[in-house]
Design goal:
heterodimer, A: about 240 residues, alpha+beta, 4-stranded antiparallel sheet, 3-stranded mixed sheet, B: about 190 residues, mainly alpha, two-stranded parallel sheet
Chain lengths: ~240, ~190
């Protein structure tokens, strides 16, 4: 089994090979260049760089994204032009933005079935922009309401998160809560293994033919760390008109 | 939460998981919110410290017992439930585990005399919380104004860890309030199995 590992901070500079066939390591510039070349053949009006730039604009004000090829050094460099006109190379943009860019490039690939696993997509992303990351991840995943085909490859995205906002942005059908219940071991002592639980009212919380629940189910109370203000909160948002006055 | 889980497993459960709820103001509201927000719990645990300095500990506990019964019945909840009524406060139950007190205070090998109360006097202590704070301070003996202040401010966390690691059994079995809680839990667990 081969698991490509995406490590954006190291992926800023790379050699211009077909990245889809290369060893573990996501090569953003090479990916973009490859996608642009493929699009030029299949659909010449489709501008991959403009699509990625438009996506990136949801996060930061960007005018354009391009790949600069240094033929002498055999290197590709990613270049981002801000709205202000400032040109940035990949090694001067934040990790959060670079991760977003890598995913935006990934979302442009077609015909690639995969399972994408991601840790803490919220890292390095402004809270108000978290939904941009959220929607990007949802867009990468297969559209379950449409048939699987060239434009809708079978892709599943699995995310591990500790972010209250990221959790609040999800439909309960897309959430699974990891817990550590106390369990009696075979030796008779108490252990705390990991258990994944679905949310009450979600599609996973369905009774099987025998009337028994298919999986462990949790209610809103179990999500309180993610959906209620933390204990000892000091800064709260006014919820009534009286508070604002 | 862990202590309840361990108690349940010790007495027959193969798996025990739970979540605590503090939402609501009155006791009845808190129980209602807990029920509404959770996914059909098998067992309900409702805690109220006995408090009531004016009454005897037993009278205080009896009053709380009744309060909880009335609250649950007013909600028409017919599932099994357990009343947890430490006398006079939860902190009384935390005064028995010297090893854990020293560990939580950051000096597991400390030798300072903690002057822990005798088991038979525990449920008569008027302010076990204050006493626990003093004992923790003695066990940790933080030096300097800043460290001492930070240590005292961390009482909530010390308390949380002491509850989490409450030894199920041992000296606790000498406390009436603990025994009542333990026996009620066993009975409720058996009622579930039936």
């Amino acid at each position: 089994m081969f698991w490509p590992l995406i490590q954006p901070p190291c992926a800023a500079r790379t050699t211009p090979r077909n990245c889809l066939a290369s060893p573990p390591g996501a090569h953003i510039p090479a990916t973009l260049q490859h996608l642009a070349q493929a699009a030029a053949q299949d659909n010449p009006e489709y501008d991959v760089y403009a699509q990625v730039s438009s996506r990136l604009s949801e996060l930061v004000p960007v005018q354009g994204v391009s790949v600069d090829e240094d033929k002498q050094r055999q290197q590709l460099a990613l270049e981002i032009v801000e709205r202000s006109g400032l040109k940035l190379h990949a090694n001067s943009i934040s990790d959060g933005t670079l991760r977003f860019l890598a995913l935006a490039a990934l979302s442009e690939t077609v015909d690639e079935s995969m399972v994408l696993c991601m840790e803490e997509p919220e890292n390095g992303i402004h809270p108000a922009k978290l939904n941009a990351m959220n929607r990007l991840l949802h867009d990468i995943a297969v559209d379950a309401e449409e048939a699987v085909d060239h434009d809708n490859p079978l892709r599943q995205v699995i995310v591990a998160t500790h972010s209250p906002y990221f959790v609040q942005l999800q439909d309960k059908d897309d959430l699974v809560l990891a817990k550590n219940p106390a369990v009696r071991s075979s030796e008779g002592d108490v252990i705390f293994p990991l258990k994944c639980c679905s949310i009450l009212g979600s599609w996973r919380d369905q009774n099987g033919n025998d009337g028994e629940r298919q999986s462990s189910v949790v209610g809103k109370l179990d999500l309180q760390s993610y959906i209620a203000p933390p204990e000892y909160v000091q800064l709260t948002f006014p919820t009534t008109f009286e508070e604002v006055k | 939460m862990h202590h309840i889980q361990r108690l349940l497993i010790q007495h027959g459960a193969t798996e025990a998981d739970g979540i605590s709820s503090h939402f609501g103001t009155s006791l009845t509201e808190k129980v209602k919110q807990g029920l509404d927000l959770s996914a059909e719990p098998d067992l309900l645990f409702i805690q109220r410290d006995a408090d009531h300095h004016l009454n005897t500990p037993a009278a205080g506990a009896a009053r709380r017992y009744e309060e909880i019964t009335i609250a649950v019945q007013s909600l028409n909840h017919d599932g099994p439930y357990v009343r947890i009524i430490p006398v006079r406060m939860t902190e009384a139950w935390l005064l028995l585990n010297e090893c854990e007190i020293r560990r939580v205070a950051g000096k597991p090998s400390g030798r300072d005399d903690l002057d822990l109360p005798a088991v038979q006097n525990i449920e008569n202590i008027a302010d076990p919380k204050r006493l626990l704070e003093d004992i923790l301070l003695r066990a940790g003996s933080p030096k300097g104004i800043r460290r001492k202040k930070n240590f005292k401010n961390n009482f909530g966390e010390h308390r949380r860890q002491l509850i989490e690691n409450l030894p199920v059994g041992g000296p606790l079995d000498s406390l009436d309030s603990w025994v009542r809680f333990r026996d009620d839990t066993i009975a409720a667990l058996q009622a579930l199995g039936d």
